[in-house]
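[step 3/7] fold_predict: job queued, chain A
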Amino acid sequence: MKPKAFLSFLCACSIPLSGQDDNAGSATETLDEIAVIGSSIPELDLSRSSILTKDQVNDRQIDNLVDLSGLSPNLHINNNSIQSYGDIITMRGIANTQLFGPAGVQLYVDGIPQADVSSYSSTLYDIESIEILRGPQGHKFGKSATGGAINIKTQAPTNKQVNRVSASYGTFDTQKYNINSSGPLEGDGSSYSVALQRALSDGYIKNTTGNADTTETWHGSLRFSLDRGNGSKIGFGANFETHELGAQPLVLRNGGDFYDRASDFDESTEIDRNQQFLTFEHELDGYSFFSITNRNDWNMNPNRVDLDTSTVNTLASPAQTSVIIQDQIEWSQEFRVESNLDSEIDWVLGAFYSDSEINGDATRSFGVTEQTVYNLESRNIAIFASLTKDLTESDKLSLGLRYDNFEQKMDRTKDGFNFVFDPALNTFIPTPFSDTVADANDFDSFSPTLNWERKITEGLTGNLRATYSEKPGGFSAYTVTDNQITFAEEETLSYEIGLLFAPTESWGLNFTAYLNDIENYQFELPDLNPLSTDYYVDNADEVTTQGIEIEGYFKPSDNFTFSVAYGLCDSEYDKFDGSGLVGEQVSFIPEHTLALSLNYEFENGLHGQIGTKTIGDTHYWNYDGSNPTDKIDSYTLLDANLGYDWNDWEFNVFGLNLTDEDYYTSLVNNLPTTPGVAGSPRVIGLSISKEF
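[step 4/7] structure written:
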């Protein structure tokens, strides 16, 4: 079995989801569809890539980004409770910050870079596949990312008419309705695709104050592909979504019923996003030219949170609430030229430009009220190149180079109160203040990479990789402390060794060991003032993350597949002046992730899957080993699906968190209550779909 063919099958099987026979074929098609604009990122590398197919996404009921956590080794997503707003994604111990920092893990949709994780609030629907690339990226496409990239691939226009309707119902009166259609346009070989989803739920959080606890979302997309018949293809389309979110899963820890919360106000949060894009592809003798133009507009109007999850407010414990209005718009343009000949040398040359602006108004109350009005502008210009040459029949060498220039500017005004201790009254006295900051920076980044790949024996391939990469600094808009407003650029030296072992089609193993040596590691911290709700991005002087990744499968028959995906991440603050964190596990990074799956395909159209997912111990914020409230213990979830295919119909009965385990997906800053984001309890549901 050739390495690329094995990777296709391994990616289909190693993620512990449904193991239907057509999954391997789907994964192969995805890999072969290299550099299809608006569809796929250019290349999936050996030893560090995973693919979830459409069947796998549907069988596991993967609805949002958080559901991906742990399904690929060392991928973890800290859920901040509001449809990806403020979620922290970590991959191999390299993390995104919540709101204002650059991406450590870059998100793509159909090969188009998203502004950041916060601006992608969408649930996952109309999915063709999800590609996960671990390790530094950016030498072959788009935006740079020091930790990895995720590409969500939606249903592309097809030359064959395909229509599909589906509906599902589950616990908490959760309902979803989908309409999808794709097919040719008359006359010129062009095609279209359209999708629409409505989802609503009562939610698993009980809002004891009687305020809104329901959620309703709408999603829609429209895409066209125009084949001009001369080697040129034009694609254009638009996406939209709207969310009305009720009670958030932010609950008191050890405070009564696990899923109960109270609020001082109606917590309905409204989020809207719309996106437009234009792509162009032209094939010439020896190379192909690509262009991707994108506009992404995201609005949160507003985000309402009762931070103390209580209506019991006293002078000693006043109401803690947050209302944030924020809008973000980004334009991006990518040009890329790639070789398309089957030769000893493959090359990529590209350029990237993005321009974004964030405007926000945050009002927070903790007995007194403070307001922060901010504007952040950023521009990124980059050029990148990659060259791969076959040295011998067994050896292949790849070189990559990337140069980035970042320009950033922040204007911020904050009106509020400082709390000054009065010894005579033995209490803190609120003193009003007004603070204005206007700052800018300019940063250049140069990132090289070197990769050597060798076919050791038939069925065994190895690779060695070394990459130096930089992530720009930025501004923390909320804080008023001078030394917390700006944070420095992050520098990472990454090493990895990988082995891809495929002796037969019945079993295989993908192994990677990695080491990241990081200077000025960027991570989020809350203000240590217990009367403040501010947080900021800080730099730890030196951090090391190292570990292993294992993906494997065993297929004793055509009907049965066992798969495993394991990640170990040993992370440590090596040097952090002025903190007590040296030697401690790095915040937001679990010690390990583990996913197991058993899949069986019966002869009569019946198919079943049972899988587990484990997220290891995770530290938060300023955990120093002495405060257990800043730590989430390891938890394991058990899921299952039983499906039946009959003609063009498909029926599925599914169960999530079948053991009904109580667990948290994240903790929220240093509030005295240390609230946590409650994960979903047991869910049982039924889905029906019809294709015609």
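[step 5/7] annotate
Helices lie at 3-14, 22-32, 54-59, 482-485.
The CA atoms of residues 136 and 146 lie 4 Å apart.
exit 0
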